[in-house]
Write a structure and sequence with these properties.
Shape: globular
Strand order of the largest sheet: 1-2
Keywords: Antiport, Ion transport, Membrane, Signal, Sodium, Sodium transport, Transmembrane, Transmembrane helix, Transport
Family: Belongs to the NhaD Na(+)/H(+) (TC 2.A.62) antiporter family.
Subcellular location: Membrane
Protein name: Na(+)/H(+) antiporter NhaD
Organism: Candidatus Thiodiazotropha endolucinida
Radius of gyration: 24 Å
Number of helices: 24
Distance between the termini: 37 Å
Structural class: mainly alpha
Helix content: 55-70%
Largest sheet: 2 strands, antiparallel
């Protein structure tokens, strides 16, 4: 039974690891106990519900939050009955700290994105592209290029949604074009997010973890070694799909959109926030989230300025009217920008889903399954293939990307990081690459794909994407080969 459970969890969570670096003398191995088997069953059911979100319309955060509570409840009950009431408590606090750092980081980034969206930054870009009247093939490449280069800053999900809006606005009646363009956008956004800590959650997780390798720490600039492999990952399938895109020119159109007051300054503040986060981490040794929260204050103060100068947006109001409105508390009706509204509009389902995943994976690691999986994947597989020590982890890291298309890259990468295998810089960059772009092989493998299935419902579908999976897989394989070649010195 233990063997069956181990094989199952290795297939489900390829790189999942122990929730702590050391086992400690007061930790029980529950991998062959009913508590362990029950925990696996709970997590499996929860994740099946997550994968079926498209059909059930049950938010993905709900099952994993419940599963996290049940798993840790079982663990705490077992340890309490064996006279160790604080052991599970200490470990769950450790998991909560890791989650809090990532959640607050993402919350700041989402707040800035929402602020730019409210100031019409993205709508301005969309309207400009629509008004140019580009042909389908040219638009296919333009949206792909923009998705690849915007996602490193704005994140792959936001970028994909923006580019999909352009595609639907221009070629919404041409189902074939919409399908191919959406596939291209998903691949490009995921690839672009893989070489930047701000582009994808998995890359952010590796950067915030401050992974140390024999070649040095995996710092902010180290990820840019993945630029060329990521570019190859997108270009190969895009070049092949190009010939299937209809060679037609749609009717142009699109109303001109004006940026709201302060839009350009908010973009500058966002860049300043990124610089602050990188500087805090690289030069002061502080967690990047501290720099991001500091950057949130930039937006808060600027929001206060916009509120105090709201009359510039409404020149028809007299000074007396403005003073009376402020005194009566009616300013909120006139001032469209409120930083706390941008916080409220963050993708809370994603943030809470991340909480559930971190706690679930941490619980499975604490039980002991993930240490077994770590040994099997990062030691036994390489030894069985007679690989050199430097390449020992390559099969496992490639499998991470394949399975991230089925499961999701967040639990996979969190599992790798909690396991913390002893790998070179090149191997850490490899697993970052594969986890980031592997989800492109299936439409359900990444947040960008799932979101676009909803946005372009009936035109971009699971099976439509699946037809092009072999081509996308070719790009996946090529990106790995290119990384092993051009970054060979880091292995």
């Amino acid at each position: 039974m233990r063997l069956i459970a181990t094989v199952f969890i290795s297939l489900l969570l390829p790189s999942v690891a122990f929730a702590a670096a050391s086992s400690g003398g007061d930790r029980f191995d529950l991998t062959n106990h009913w508590v362990g088997f029950t925990a696996i069953g709970i997590f499996t059911v929860a994740y099946l519900l997550v994968m079926a979100e498209e059909f059930t319309h049950l938010r993905k955060s709900k099952p994993v939050i419940l599963a996290a509570g049940l798993i840790w409840g079982l663990i705490a009950w077992y340890y309490n009955t064996h006279g160790l009431p604080h052991t599970a408590e200490e470990m769950v606090r450790h998991n909560l700290l890791e989650y809090a750092e990532l959640m607050l980081f993402l919350l700041v980034a989402m707040t800035y994105i929402n602020a730019m969206d409210e100031r019409n930054v993205f709508e301005k870009l969309r309207s400009w592209l629509v008004s140019k009247g580009f042909g389908f093939r040219k638009l296919f490449w333009i949206t792909g290029v923009l998705a690849f280069f915007i996602s490193p800053v704005a994140d792959n999900l936001t970028t994909a949604l923006l580019m999909c809006a352009v595609v639907l606005a221009v070629g919404g009646s041409n189902t074939k074009f919409v399908l191919l363009a959406c596939i291209n956008i998903v691949v490009a956004a995921n690839a672009g997010g893989a070489f930047s800590p701000f582009g994808d959650i998995t890359t952010l997780m590796v950067w915030q973890k401050s992974v140390t390798t024999p070649q040095g720490p995996v710092d902010f600039w180290a990820f840019f070694a993945l630029f060329v492999p990521s570019l190859v990952n997108w270009l190969i399938p895009a070049a092949i799909m190009h010939f299937a895109v209809p060679d037609e020119k749609p009717q142009g159109g699109g109303e001109d959109v004006e940026l709201k007051r302060g839009a350009k300054r908010i973009m500058v503040f966002f860049l300043a926030t990124i610089v602050t986060a990188v500087s805090f981490h690289n030069f002061l040794g502080m967690p990047p989230v501290i720099g991001m929260l500091t950057g949130l204050a930039y937006l808060q103060f600027f929001g206060f300025y916009l509120k105090k100068t709201f009359h510039l947006d409404h020149p028809q109001l007299s000074t007396e009217d403005r003073i009376e409105m402020e005194h009566d508390g009616q300013m909120g009706d006139m001032v469209s920008f409120d930083v706390f509204n941008k916080v409220a509009r963050a993708e809370w389902d994603t943030l809470l889903f991340f909480y559930g995943v971190v706690l679930c994976v941490g619980g499975l690691g604490f039980i002991g399954y993930l240490a077994v999986v770590s040994e099997m994947m990062y030691t036994q597989w390489g030894a069985a293939m007679d690989l050199t020590p430097a390449m020992n982890a390559t099969p496992a890291n490639i499998m991470v990307g394949i399975l991230s298309a089925i499961v999701d890259n967040i639990p996979v990468m969190f599992a790798v990081l909690t396991m913390m295998p002893d790998m070179s810089m090149g191997q850490w960059l490899l697993v970052t690459l594969t986890a980031g772009v592997g989800g492109s092989m299936l439409s359900i493998g990444s947040a960008a794909g799932v979101a676009l299935m909803g946005q372009a419902r009936g035109k971009y579908t699971f099976f439509g994407h699946l037809k092009w999976a072999p081509v996308i897989s070719l790009g996946y394989a090529a990106s790995i080969v290119v990384h092993l070649w051009i970054n060979s010195g880091s292995f």
